[in-house]
Amino acid sequence: MQELRLRYSLHFLAFVITFFLNVALASAEESSSTAQKPQRVISLAPSITEIVYALGRGKQVVGVTSYCDFPAEARAVAKVGGFSDPNIEAVVSLRPTVVFGLPGHQALADGLDSFGIKAVLTKQESFADIFASIRTIGESLDSKDAAEKLTSQMSAGMAAVREQRRGEHRPTVLVTVGGHLKHASLDSIYAAGSSTLYHELIEFSGGRNVLESRIRYGKLSAEALLTLNPDVIIDLIPFADGAGEEQSAKIRKETIELWNTLPRLKAVQQKRLYLLDDEFVVNPGPRTVKTLKLFAEAINPSVYPAGLQTQVKENATR
Fold it and tell me: At what angle do helices 144-164 and 46-54 cross, to 10 degrees?
């Protein structure tokens, strides 16, 4: 009897050990499988799409907005709606493991939470914000090293611009972001204030933002433009990029004609009006350093050697 009990106890002990070993092995396999399983990423902004691809995670992108067209590979990815009105049903149907967006996507993020879908929202309103956004996205995609490398490259590009800045003269600069072409009038134009990334670009390039208002974007009239009378005007018209050569030329011609209706503007008189129609000038991300170089050459064209020149558009009044 005692021998039978001992045999039973040994069998039971063996069963317990085997059971827990199997549980441990299954748990390890599941953890390994989860760690190795690629993420399914959806991006709700062109700038975020560019960051994800720059971090080498483009193959994990399963959904983007209809405005996400860079890099070229993003154009073939499933669309989930526009930038300001993404379709939550389209997002959910793609079974994402993470959705990246901006603060303006908070309502969508709240809706995704009820489906158990993780949403990560980042700000991109300054250089510090852009760097933080890259690091946050990199951490979420297990790409910390790639994120640090990317931010280091951007910092080096910024330093190159700063090193070329010389002299104490800081021309006044106005950066316009739209409104005038839609109404074919300079009585309704929006310009970047001091709480914007464009303000930082101006300051970093050696200029001084003529619109010192703390509001992000102010609406100006023709009279206000004449009162401010900046030394340099940088007009951002990214909608001309990709419009086709003929249409792009038409937009630029109309823009020049519009500015020439205010010949008393110093920037118009001195041929310091620049039109920037590359789409990346309105997408805060890895190529913002290219935007910085364009600003720097427009604001202080004489101090940049040929090696730093990018492709500043020809002076619009020539």
Answer: 110
